[in-house]
Write the structure tokens for this entry.
Amino acid sequence: MVRVLVGGLIGLAIAMGIARFAFAPILPAMQDATGLRADGAGLLASLNYLGYFVGALGAGMVPHGATRTAVFRLSLLVSAATTAAMGLDLGDAGQAMPVWLVLRFLSGVSSAGIFILGIAMVLDTLTRQGGERFAGWLYTGVGLGIASSGLFVALFGGRLGWDGSWLALGAICAVLGLMPGLWVRDPVPQQHSAKAGAVENTGAAHRSGLSAPLLLLTLAYFLEGGGYIVSATFLVSILKTDPGTAAIGEAAWMVVGIGAMGAGVFWAAVAKRSSSWWSLILAHLTQTVAILLPMTGSPTASVVSALLFGGTFVGIVSQAFALGRQLSAGASAKIVGALTAAYGLGQIIGPLPAGLVVTRTGSFNIALLGAAAAVLLGTLLLALGMAIAGRQASTGPALASPKAS
């Protein structure tokens, strides 16, 4: 069980911390060396998230058993290859852009394969072996990967250059990928449990339907995807372009990873003391502040921003899934897929206008204001959803009793 959990954690570190988000600390050096503009960077980010969206949809159709294990291993291989290939000498940004777009798209597809299939297989194994209580620690891999990629770029980026950093990180992914590739596999399905679960989930889906609180949660999650991704894409570039914060660019990305490590466990504890609704609302409000803090130009505020940002986005993901399962009365497969699709669409859309605005204005402030507004609007939708869910809960038993009798 321990090897499976560690393998899954390393898989998440590769998929999210390196393959997806190492782009952020490497981006400033890429721009300086190749002439890549902010709108081009936003396009590359959006293609990566489009790939993740496509990969998430495809991962849901992968059958259990040997096929799921094989696709997971193939995703690890593609992730390492596409990360390393970003460092190949392809000329300036204008010449390299078509290849970069393909690589970032494929990297997104493979990240989704590792993330979704890896989590599913690890959680299935933990459940079989009575280790469900350790599931929350699986998500620390995301923060560990982000912090490690930021530390690597800070220590070696100057000597390796942006291209050497991509090549080296790809090699690291290839070596580390051996562990999840060997340790994480789909357990043999238990036929009777699968049938019982299918009947239970089908009945739950018919009972729950698409309720107003569930719809509001999905819309809020879409806005979160579009808002948080602006900081996730451009945070290091934002800090590097301001003389007052330029020295802490890569270090801030490490702080994001440190904040993300314990985020899932922390916001789960908040939810246990209050509710998942309140946990999500507080996390959204905290993230809104985190997105805006770099506008102050203060190094201290920027470090706090990085810590709060890392400490919220992973927690929002885990709590949104938890609340979605509650609102769907157990139809977790459908709701997780719907939430992932909504989040993915937000991630695709968010970087494009942000990159265009930065290119035209020469400032990140408008992009940050827009991102913060999206997250804040999501907070309002969550508050409305919580109020509606509370009214439904208070009137539900009275309405249900005539049917029961």
Remarks:
- DSSP finds 16 helices and no strands in the chain.
- The chain has two domains: 1-185, 207-391.
- The CA atoms of residues 91 and 253 lie 27 Å apart.
